Amino acid sequence: MSDYVYHLAKQHHSVRKFKPEPLTRETVKKLIEAGQMASTSSYLQTTSVVGVENPEKKAALKEVSGQPYVLDNGYLLIFVIDYNRHDLVNEQQAQDMTTSFESAEGLLVGTVDASLMAQNIALTAEDMGYGIVYLGSLRNDVTRVREILDLPEYTFPIFGMAIGVPSEDENGTPKPRLPFEHVFHVDTYDNDRDMARQQLATYDETVSDYYAERTDGRRTETWSEQVANFMSSKQRLEMKDWLQEAGFNKK
Ligand SMILES: Cc1cc2nc3c(=O)[nH]c(=O)nc-3n(C[C@H](O)[C@H](O)[C@H](O)COP(=O)(O)O)c2cc1C
């Protein structure tokens, strides 16, 4: 037994500053192949990946995200929930499959599949010495992303990933996660709210200390403050319409 992957996973941190060294197509192919071997619900394989190499398209996607590392990276991948291929199968088979890809369940299956594939890619890339950051910010304007990438019906850009050689001054470190006892339950969900409150209070201190140390005291917010700020701002409320425009989440 080896705990190599355990240690690799524990070292993860998002990288947001890359050297201007593009990944070769050979490396990209390897990453996608590793991603494709992730488990996939009912063998449906509901993900496609668009590698964005055209600088104008990257610049346009950067505008959607507002994040410079969408443009400045070694390679940019966009993960797409993809039932377009199932639509082709549907045309040739006697049964009607449309309800399946238009359902909420179909959307969940596609989201999970894309995430599993992406995380295989992330870990493989990190093992090769690259850094990665996921890009949910591309969902700021799904209609625009669909236009830029020419995405057909029954496809949905769920997130992106910037990959590259970490810049020397990238300066990231693994961020502390919630306590093990807080996220792991045995047999039943332990809903002891006093204990959970205590665990969160301790974790808040850990996170505040982590930020203070990394920013010479300029940032000291707790995890609770961070999630409260984020979750109280109304985020992407057009998503339901964007999903339905693409053919998803209708039932
Ligand atoms: C689906 C997904 C979307 C994300 N979107 C963004 C993003 O748009 N921009 C960004 O800078 N980080 C993004 N992140 C990275 C998270 O902010 C990051 O994983 C989290 O803060 C934990 O930090 P760590 O990855 O360094 O451990 C995203 C992560 C995930 C899983």
TrEMBL record:
It comes from the Bacteria. InterPro entries: Flavin_OxRdtase_Frp, Nitroreductase, Nitroreductase-like. It comes from Staphylococcus muscae. The gene is nfrA. Belongs to the flavin oxidoreductase frp family. Residues 10-164 form the Nitroreductase domain. Its cofactor is FMN. Keywords: Flavoprotein, FMN, NADP, Oxidoreductase. Reduces FMN, organic nitro compounds and disulfide DTNB. Involved in maintenance of the cellular redox state and the disulfide stress response. This is NADPH-dependent oxidoreductase. The keyword Transport does not apply. Its EC number is 1.6.-.-. It holds the Pfam family Nitroreductase. GO terms for molecular function: oxidoreductase activity. PANTHER family: NADPH-DEPENDENT OXIDOREDUCTASE, OXYGEN-INSENSITIVE NADPH NITROREDUCTASE.
